[in-house]
Amino acid sequence: MKRQNSYWKLTKSPFYSFVFTLPLFGIYEVMTLFLSRDQLLSLRNGADALFRQFLGMFGIWGPYVLSILFIIGFMIAFLWQKAKFRGTSVRGDYLIKMLLEGSAWGILLYVTLRYAPNLLMLPSGKMISQQIVLAIGAGLYEEMLFRVLIINGSLGLMKIIFRWPKLWRLTVAILISACLFSAFHFIGVFGETYKLSTFIYRGFAGILLGTLYVARGFGITAYAHMFYDFIVVFNLTTL
After folding, report:
1. CB neighbour list of residue 206: distance below 8 Å, 6 or more residues apart
2. What's residue 51's pLDDT?
3. Who contacts 113 (Cβ-Cβ below 8 Å, separation ≥6)?
């Protein structure tokens, strides 16, 4: 098999990330509607709520805007995959390997952050089913916002403004993403009380996730974050 079509190359691509996470988006939306009919906004993951509030600016067209953006994103990923790898077929064995890899990274992330295992997720749902929904939402929407959008957005701006080497730009983009990711948890009505130690530790978690995103793409990182949160939920419910 050609090097460019290897597991490590293909599974990092936006197309594979899209296909890999598509079932999670569906499960999250269905479970959210089913579990929180009267408290839809409060039970949604915080990053998801930000997306929804932004789309609310479009009034009744908000849901359609989300769908249109989703379709546009898929088409861009599809065309990019076709142009770069000369093919858009999805290998089932690669998806299984991605699932195993994502769970392995999630376990490693938990082991690394074991002294503060709830820093990425502070479950607010009363039932374990609600906590699972929030765990899926955190993996999807927090990674979409802080890794995909902020890291790539920062890289794009720095490429225009500065003439730095790529490694420097990647490092700064990951740090910006990590700081915003940490600060995000202290903002709003449901935000935590600010503590410098918590901010630093969660920022460190953001650096780990940002580095994983740059190395392995959105799909693997989203699953790693989600599996980490699953471990947290399991530990909290079995104490």
Report:
1. 146, 174, 177, 178, 179, 181, 182
2. 63
3. 119, 120, 201, 204, 205, 228
CB 87 within 8 A of CB 5: yes
Q: What is the mean pLDDT of residues 116-130?
A: 62
Q: Which residues contact 52 (CB under 8 A, 6 or more apart)?
A: 41, 44, 62
Q: What is the pTM of this model?
A: 0.84
For residue 24, CA distances in Å to 17, 28, 42, 135 come to 11, 6, 20, 11
What pLDDT was estimated at residue 123?
Answer: 53
Q: Are 84 and 10 in contact (CB under 8 A)?
A: no
Please state, in angstroms and rounded to a whole number, the distance separating the CA atoms of residues 233 and 223. 15
Q: From the CA atom positions of the chain, what is the Rg in Å?
A: 18
- The Cα–Cα gap between 155 and 174 comes to 9
Compute the distance between CA of residue 85 and CA of residue 53 in angstroms, rounded to an integer.
37
Token pair recorded at residue 22: 């598509």
Domain that holds residue 165: 3-237
12 DSSP assignment: T
Q: What whole-number percentage of the chain has pLDDT above 70?
A: 73
194 secondary structure, DSSP code: P
Average of per-residue pLDDT values in the chain:
80
As for how many domains the chain has, the answer is 1
SS3 125: coil
Rounded Cα distance, 51 and 81, in Å: 26
pLDDT in tens, 42-57: 555 566 666 666 666 6
